[in-house]
């Protein structure tokens, strides 16, 4: 029994004695490899996709675990800081877009507008300019309103058209005429506009 214990102790001591001898060799190998790589170029670790996903999941789990360790007050403070950061970014973006729009307006101030401005206030009736597309009905014309505007975010020219029915008391306007109409009281099921002026006659 004592002999077996002595043998085990001897093997443990020999293993411990051999271990330090191996580690400096390994360190020297890594140092020499590092020196060689520093002389040429750093080796880049190639991580397989599965290993990458595993590492990302582990990092996310660790982050979730750390977040659960926070108190409710700390989480609330973190949320408030994040909201403040986003609000600041929004303010910067809005200021930049306002400056850009102001510069664009100043640059295009001399250009004429095809359609009257759509300003509307209490007690002031809307006015639209469009082209007559139908005059078949008696004392009624169908007017197409074309609007071209620039998209706020993508800055692409967006063209939109809609039709409306207008009252023409004397059947003055015909197909192709450019007219100005103004909103009025409901005059029938569809008519909510009245002809004001024929700007240009169709040829």
Which descriptors apply to this entry?
3 helices, alpha+beta, 203 residues, elongated, OB fold (Dihydrolipoamide Acetyltransferase, E2P), 5-stranded mixed beta barrel
Can you walk me through this structure?
By secondary structure, the chain is α+β, with helices and mostly antiparallel strands. Among the domains are: 62-105; 127-200, OB fold (Dihydrolipoamide Acetyltransferase, E2P), CATH 2.40.50.140. The chain is built from 3 helices and 5 strands. The chain has a 5-stranded mixed β-barrel with strand order 1-2-3-5-4. The longest helix is centred in the first third of the chain and has 38 residues, at 2-39. The chain is elongated, with a radius of gyration of 40 Å. The model is unreliable at 14-39 (pLDDT under 50).
Low-confidence stretches: 14-39
* Average of the residue pLDDT scores: 81
Number of helices: 3
Strands in their spatial order, largest beta sheet: 1-2-3-5-4
Percentage beta strand: 15-25%
* Main pleated sheet: 5 strands, mixed, barrel
Describe the secondary structure blueprint for this structure.
Elements: H1 2-39, H2 49-68, H3 72-107, E1 127-134, E2 140-150, E3 157-167, E4 178-183, E5 193-200
Parallel strand pairs: 3-5
Antiparallel strand pairs: 1-2, 1-4, 2-3, 4-5
């Amino acid at each position: 029994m004592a002999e077996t214990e002595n043998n085990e102790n001897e093997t443990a001591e020999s293993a411990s004695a051999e271990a330090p001898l191996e580690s400096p060799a390994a360190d020297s190998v890594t140092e020499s490899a590092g020196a060689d790589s520093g002389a040429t170029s750093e080796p880049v670790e190639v991580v397989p996709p599965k290993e990458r996903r595993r590492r990302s999941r582990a990092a996310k789990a660790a982050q979730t675990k750390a977040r659960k360790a926070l108190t409710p007050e700390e989480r609330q403070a973190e949320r408030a800081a994040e909201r403040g950061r986003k609000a600041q970014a929004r303010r910067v973006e809005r200021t930049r877009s306002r400056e850009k729009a102001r510069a664009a307006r100043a640059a295009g101030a001399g250009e004429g507008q095809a359609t009257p401005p759509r300003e509307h206030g209490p007690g002031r009736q809307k006015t639209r300019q469009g082209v007559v597309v139908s005059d078949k009905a008696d004392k009624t014309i169908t007017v197409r309103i074309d609007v071209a505007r620039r998209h706020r975010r993508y800055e692409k020219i967006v063209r939109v058209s809609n039709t409306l029915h207008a009252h023409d008391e004397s059947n003055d306007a015909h197909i192709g005429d450019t007219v100005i109409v103004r909103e009025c009281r409901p005059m029938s099921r569809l008519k909510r506009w009245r002809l004001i002026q024929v700007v240009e006659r169709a040829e």
